[in-house]
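#data-curation
PF: Archiving a pair of folding outputs for the training set. Convention for this channel: one message per protein, sequence first, structure tokens after, nothing in between. First:
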Amino acid sequence: MPSQSKKILILLGDIAILYFSLLVTVYLRYSEASNFTSSNFTTQQFFLIHLRAFTPLILIWLLIFYIHNLYEINSAKNNLEFYSTLARAFVVSFFVAVLFFYFANFTYVAPKTNLFIYFIIFSGLFVLWRGQANALFKKSLLLKTFIISEDKKGSKLALKLNQNPQIGYKVEAVINSTDSISESVKNKNIGALIIDDKLFNRESLVSHLYNFIDRVEVITLDKFNERVWRKVNLENVNHLWFLNNIVSGKRSLYETTKRFFDFVLGILLIPVFILLGIIISLLIKIEGGGPVFYKQLRVGQKGKSFNLIKFRTMRTDAEKNGAQWTIENDKRVTRIGRFLRKTRLDELPQLINIIKGEMSFVGPRAERPEFHHLLVKEIPFYDRRYLVKPGLTGWAQINYTYGSSVEDTKEKLSYDFYYLKNRSLVFDVGIILKTINIVLAGLGR
């Protein structure tokens, strides 16, 4: 089953569990056998009343689940990471629900009791449902797959897919000979063929594939990787790739609309920046004095430099020996700075850069000129990431956090180019929502 179909199945299952739990809650509270029976309404009428009250909350909860990556098939595993994420989503959902009913006023709804009962029923059923769904994706609904490849790329992909069966593919074999491929596909009931791009233009192979394109999924290896892992293979990036995939004229309306929302949202968030800024400034001063803000020259859209503004998170002598990569557990980071980085609150002052039009909420990370000059020499087409404005957050930032080497930067660039190719307002909103998960989990660095 394709990943998109699985996501829809999970979403529909979640919605069913949410409303079924509400039905059970109302029955327990207001059925004729209940001690809380009211003579004014029937159980059905009470359900309709609660349906209107809880539906906005259910929609908010679904959004919270999305923010916590609970609709990402790659993470649909019955392991500690999945259930830890699920627990965090439950905690956030419960507190949001408490706030929701604190400010909302619904007649004939007793949220203090009903919400507690509803949440207990829902949590239990939801954990059971998701556990079974994850197990189903692992053992069933798998497409038997052949990978046709003559080098290590094929075997690496096979290993990765078989280690992550929730994606939906079971690799039966990695083959390099296509002589009897038609017979093998029929005998083993193969549902998908993933073919190395270098072999795809071979006339003998294409003639074989043509015989069963109506019943077998056929895709090149690089396109498959891009679709599943949502990043671009840098080996395929050349001048023609940019001409085919990065056409600015087609996105002029998108760019204009994005700039409008950047400006409006930036203005709306200024009061939040001021309120949190006062508290953060006091904490920075209390810890060790020194400047509150830190200005740093960065490379922006089309290579134009600008001064990026952040709350200072490092010691004042952090770069006495020159520019350095930020590394994990960097000793130059202060205690307050470590908290600010984990929650990404250190980046709040960049609202000023966004309002000025130097940055966007979503885009590639703005790099320092010192590193930019090195990376341009080491990585082909690195400077093409500046075709769009740098962002407060971005597809590479949420998938790979910080890069502390040229190799790390190459990996991040594969995500940056995927964003350049697929950028849209819907994609931008999704990135912003997933950034909230990083903030809540304290996964910044």
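PF: Second:
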Amino acid sequence: MSTPSVKAAQNLSKSPAKKPKSKPAKSSGPSPAVMPTYARQNIVFEKGEGAWLVATSGERYLDFASGVAVNALGHAHPKLIAALNEQARNLWHCSNLYRVAGQERLAERLCEVTFADKVFFTNSGAEACEGAIKLARRYHFANGHPERWRIVTFKGAFHGRTLATIAAAGNEKYLEGFGEPAPGFDLVPFGDLEAAEKAIGPHTAAIMVEPVQGEGGVRVGSNPFLQGLRKLCDEHGLLLVLDEVQCGMGRTGKLFVYEAAGITPDVMAVAKGIGGGFPVGCFMATDEAAKGMVPGTHGSTYGGNPLAMAVGNAVLDAVLEPGFLDQVREAGLRLKQELARVKDENPDVVEEVRASGLLAGIKVKPPMGEVVGACLAEKLLTVGAGENVVRLLPPLNVTQAEISEAVQRLSLALKRVAKPAPKPA
């Protein structure tokens, strides 16, 4: 009698052989194996140093995109490399079923320099915003008001790509094709305090806002606007949730934007720069706001893993060094002044300069994509944004010489897209 293994072998021998998948022919374009959810530039980078990237062709690019405000200390920063290598030799992952020493250290340090008492670590900004939304709703549930679960949010915001965060931002482009938007969000115009107040009702739990809308076009919320939101939350018993994923961690010249506005949030989502290029995010909260987050209410397999925490602590070391944020403010002022000069020299192309520290942008008259492409042709990396804005997001440790070089390349790019003056009749 044949054993099961022999039978299986006999059956296998009788079945027709599967034809191997044909390998796609080599091409200079993107691989068809990668899901095409990005309109990627046809360029591959193989190494970087500081504010510079080197493509596989050997060409050098000045990086004023910083991985969309992620590479806070530029590329291949020696302290980040050392921290990651040291941790990699010891422990990569053990899960949140156990204490993580680096996680406790980074949480304590973040609480020391911010409003927060509690920190939950994530892998991305979207997860940080999603967690902040859950915390805000859970807070009212824990206080005996489960009916308070709606959140006032603002048009032009970008909170991530999860089903909840695209609903919170309300951008039709990101909502299309994913069914009914997740309920519970009441969108109002950015900067409109009166509209925000009118949106508050008996079911409102919180107000969620980006102090500076990066993806939305470098739209800077004024101090009176942010202070007014804090007042509304106090008057109506709401939580004020800030999304400082892009504008936080020193990018505007303050560790976080709320400091400059003179307010204290209840909850804040952070990511991007906090990991300096390694996937790290978190949401922070006061003890009062976080009291509903008890065991079992939230979790993350990878969030706060030893590798991420080693890098996060090294980034915080650098950003908190005496004088570091002063240099960011000086660099931000220099960049804004240089962009103002570019606007004056190119009135037919540049409509407006917008900036908060090293989160800067120019609102252009030609299609934004054309300007980003022209910058790429000048070996300058920039990022598009809403309202036809081109963002410039250099590393926080960018030099004055690199700012001058970037502006020179930007000027050349703008000349590429400028329409020629009409010839006299």
